[in-house]
Amino acid sequence: MKKLINAVENVVREQLEGMASAHADVLKVSYEPTFIYRADAPVANKVALISGGGSGHEPMHGGFVGKGMLDAACPGEVFTSPTPDQMYAAGSAVNSGAGVLYIVKNYTGDVLNFEAAAEMLAGEGVPVQSILIDDDAAVKDSLYTAGRRGVGATVITEKITGAAAEAGYDLLQCADLCRKVNTSSRSIGVALTSCIVPAAGKPTFDLGDGEFEFGIGIHGEPGRRRLPMASVDEITEMMASAILDDGVYTRTVREWDQARGEWVDKELVNAPLRSGDGVIAFVNSMGGTPVSELYAMYRKLSGLLDARGIRIARNLIGPYITSLEMQGASITLVKVDDEILKFWDAPVLTPGLRWGV
Amino acid sequence: MVTKEQIVRWLERLASVLAENKAYLTDLDSAIGDADHGTNMARGFAKVAEKLVSVADTDIGNILKATGMTLMSSVGGASGPLYGTFFMRGGAVTASREELSVEDLGEMLHAGMQGIQQRGRAIAEDKTMIDAWIPALAAYDTARIAGEDTAAALRRAVAGAEAGMKATIPLQARKGRASYLGERSIGHQDPGATSTYLMLKALLDTLESS
Prior knowledge:
Chain A is α/β, with parallel strands linked by helices.
């Protein structure tokens, strides 16, 4: 293993210290417990957005803390979910009184820890909402699995909901918009190489020179299948089909009911994309794939969408939700409407995304 | 009867048992999960052992709650909130107690297991720790109703947990990260069911060694 690290056990801490000193104008870092928060938090009368998850996906989530996006992010160890004390402390620190929205990627560890934190915060009388992100179309069914994983749509929902909170949306409006963006999103990822978790010191899985893994998550989880290596056009076509030919996706998720003070089941439905739809096309690097190759992927993707009558309204291309040094890429398509586009275009000032300011 | 001192010794023993089984649990987890169960549990119970110093003189409810809070904030993954909830709920039904009768211990274990079920929403045969808890507590209840003492009832519970743990091997996972493997999760023993077995076994060993 060759990595730019000192002692393995200090990796996350040292990276956070670097981040705090590089972006002191935008964010601060608390270490006991660990969370990254907006330098000007709490922002008066604004709903506070908090996300979090294992480290190793940078710039997500810490790099998205700042004006127009997240108020706080809770990093765990590499690929390990953070704990409720972090999420609770972050919530207490950034809540202005307008309440806290937790944005949670659908992984069992993240979900259980955020649920415990939401109960603790709600127990203190803080208005809380919690929205699950589950956009990974590689997972076929939700009945016999923990459901679709949260991947690329996380970046898009954090940007759009963050802008809405900045514009004065209240807690329930923010939660509704966040849920809408999630149920308008689908993603698919591929890996050309494994990543190496620093504490493990060796690749998470073995992938031969002549093969790639189709339908991976963001932690080197297994995909749908392993295939012989192919051209960027062929791989992009497979990825686009996995999203465009995905039918109606229905699942039951658990959301916090503020009025009743308990968790309630909610059925959510993703409709398939249709000719005439407009989308945000997000082509993402898993960390090791250069941006130039993402453009080669985008070239093919835009042609394929054009042929299906789907219009790319906006795009985002680059490494935004990564899996350490893994070579690979993901495509996320988010069906847009006027509300989504308005908040996508709104100003954002974070280390990872910055425009309009 | 289980005394407060035995509860403390159980938790201390568990810290060393989980340290000894760190590699074993992590190996089980690397086959079907994300290879961190052993590390996470060992780290969490090492913290519990540190915490015990300041709470050992209080009461059983408080000791169990402190254990739950410590696990919740130091384990991470799915097992942190699950075992954290187990001890917090167990602590809630044993508030201000200095000792537990065979009925009290049963109540504590049931409250804890219900907490795990509510939090994790797993049912029998999902290939989770619940598959060890359900047969363990069923065996405990049967022995208790038949008039057996705490150690005898726990011995049955440990046998139930062990059988439940082994019965996870042929199951296909329907919860947690292992569920994404589909049929590939078949043939592996569930790491959470294994740590549950170790937990009950440590309690029995504590009672039998004193």
